[in-house]
């Protein structure tokens, strides 16, 4: 894809795949037209459905192709209500991370006090616990059996959806049933979440009738209920599906991105000292009080996402009918149009010294960067991890952008803060494979091990 992007010099290019063709765009004009396409022309939700195969991975749930036809309450729940409450829940998020690390590393001790763990597997569990708290509060979030089941379900969906995407249509029903019935895991997860949703709906009705005066818990189940489209009268079942869909959209990306940042902490040790200085300063208190700040850590994570994008493409839209860009480029019905995000992130025009890791390339000019730490400057000036820009498409391409990025930024910072402040980290085998490529995904290799040595040891 990168070679095609270079050859195309801004023009659109096509890449065929077993399930459908891809038409890649990167010019300002194409992006503008893609963002402005009508809802019945290019669809984000149709592409998402193809990615996740919910018919087989979410107990037959299906959503409409037209974004907004069933409301976009989830965008408010995730992008507004969750960030608004973040300051309130951040101390508990921090405590949750500490508890997870202590529990997960407890049994791995070597005689010298160090602990060795496969890094992505560890991060996935930490993030699962953390997300569990943000999504389900203390009810299901503290329920060990539920958290183990929901993590197992997550893994199943990732594998099942990829297998189903390339399964010929005539075999899909058969292969899909195999995944759907596997140990009844989908039904179990559904039942547990649905139970909580039913209770919350009952309590909401009681609260509105003045029968109880306890406040609703501050978590995504509550906010998904509160932002559900009233005119559609969603019951518990539909709300449960919405919560499950949000869960998938979040855990996988969060874990992969944080795992890469952990590898980068192991590989580029010169950043540890300035990061520790920042995390021990007023900056951290300010971050806990405002959710903002920590410019060095923010830039380090952003550079890690640039250097190791977990997906080669972004801004997927499926054509619901033949679609033509104004230069005549055709996206045939069923094909996807998308952006070659990884190739753009490695383009020297936009990211000088693009192939090198420059942890502080995005920091504000006034930030306290010590001499000797590389800091390539961006032509467009400083930017934050959560910013959307025409060349950084990790959160999407505009018209649809990730509303979870504010929470993701805080969650990643809190996990990395815990690691940086409490451990020295190193790759057990610096030559071990860190990333594996499957189609457009570039995922952290599960078995790659990191040694955690407590800093006080
Ligand atoms: C590092 C972590 C994450 C990454 C890299 C990421 C990336 C993305 C991307 C690329 C899109 C699609 C935009 C498009 O195709 O144009 C998206 C959409 C979305 N993401 Fe995230 N995401 C992350 C974390 C999260 C989290 C933690 C949540 C929820 C708590 C979340 C919720 C959503 C939702 C609801 C959408 C759909 C938005 C809409 O329909 O308007 N994401 N995300």
Automatic annotation (TrEMBL):
Gene3D superfamilies: Cytochrome P450. Its cofactor is heme. Pathway: Mycotoxin biosynthesis. Heme binds at residue 402. Keywords: Heme, Iron, Membrane, Metal-binding, Monooxygenase, Oxidoreductase, Transmembrane, Transmembrane helix. It comes from the Eukaryota. This is Cytochrome P450. It comes from Cucurbitaria berberidis CBS 394.84. It is found in: Membrane. Its main location: membrane. It holds the Pfam family p450. One of its GO terms (molecular function) is heme binding. Belongs to the cytochrome P450 family. GO terms for cellular component: membrane.
């Amino acid at each position: 894809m990168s070679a095609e992007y270079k050859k195309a010099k801004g023009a659109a290019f096509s890449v065929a795949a077993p399930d459908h063709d891809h038409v890649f765009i990167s010019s300002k004009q194409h992006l503008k037209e893609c963002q402005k396409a009508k809802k019945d022309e290019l669809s984000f939700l149709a592409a998402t459905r193809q990615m996740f195969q919910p018919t087989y991975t979410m107990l037959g749930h299906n959503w409409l192709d037209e974004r907004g036809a069933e409301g976009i309450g989830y965008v408010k729940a995730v992008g507004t209500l969750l960030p608004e409450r973040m300051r309130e829940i951040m101390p508990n998020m921090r405590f949750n991370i500490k508890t997870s690390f202590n529990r997960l590393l407890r049994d791995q001790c070597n005689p010298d006090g160090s602990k060795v763990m496969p890094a992505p597997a560890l991060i996935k569990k930490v993030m699962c616990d953390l997300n569990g708290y943000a999504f389900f509060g203390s009810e299901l979030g503290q329920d060990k059996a539920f958290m183990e089941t929901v993590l197992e379900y997550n893994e199943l969906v990732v594998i099942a959806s990829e297998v189903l995407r390339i399964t010929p249509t005539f075999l899909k029903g058969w292969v899909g049933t195999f995944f759907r019935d596997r140990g009844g895991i989908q039904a179990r997860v559904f039942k547990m979440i649905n139970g909580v949703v039913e209770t919350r709906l009952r309590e909401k009705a009681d609260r509105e009738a003045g029968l109880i005066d306890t406040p609703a818990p501050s978590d995504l189940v509550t906010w998904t209920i509160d932002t559900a489209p009233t005119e559609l009268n969603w019951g518990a079942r539909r709300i449960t599906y919405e919560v499950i869909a949000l869960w998938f959209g979040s855990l996988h990306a969060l874990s992969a991105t944080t795992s890469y940042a952990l590898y980068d902490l192991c590989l580029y040790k010169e950043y540890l000292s300035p990061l520790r200085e920042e995390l021990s300063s007023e900056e951290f208190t300010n971050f806990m009080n405002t959710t903002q700040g920590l410019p060095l850590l923010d830039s380090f994570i952003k550079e890690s996402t640039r250097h190791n994008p977990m997906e080669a493409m972004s801004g997927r839209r499926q054509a619901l009918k033949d679609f033509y860009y104004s230069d005549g480029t055709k996206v045939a019905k069923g094909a996807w149009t998308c952006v070659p995000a990884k190739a753009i992130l490695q383009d020297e025009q936009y990211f000088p010294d693009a192939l090198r890791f420059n942890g502080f390339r995005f920091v504000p000019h006034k930030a306290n960067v010590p001499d000797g730490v590389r800091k390539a400057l961006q032509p467009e000036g400083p930017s934050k991890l959560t910013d959307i820009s025409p060349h950084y498409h990790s959160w999407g391409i505009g018209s649809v952008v990730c509303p979870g990025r504010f929470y993701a930024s805080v969650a990643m910072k809190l996990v990395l803060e815990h690691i940086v402040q409490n451990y020295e980290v190193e790759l057990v085998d610096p030559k071990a494979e860190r990333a594996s490529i499957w189609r457009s995904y570039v995922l952290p290799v599960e078995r790659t091990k990191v040694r955690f040595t407590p800093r006080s040891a």
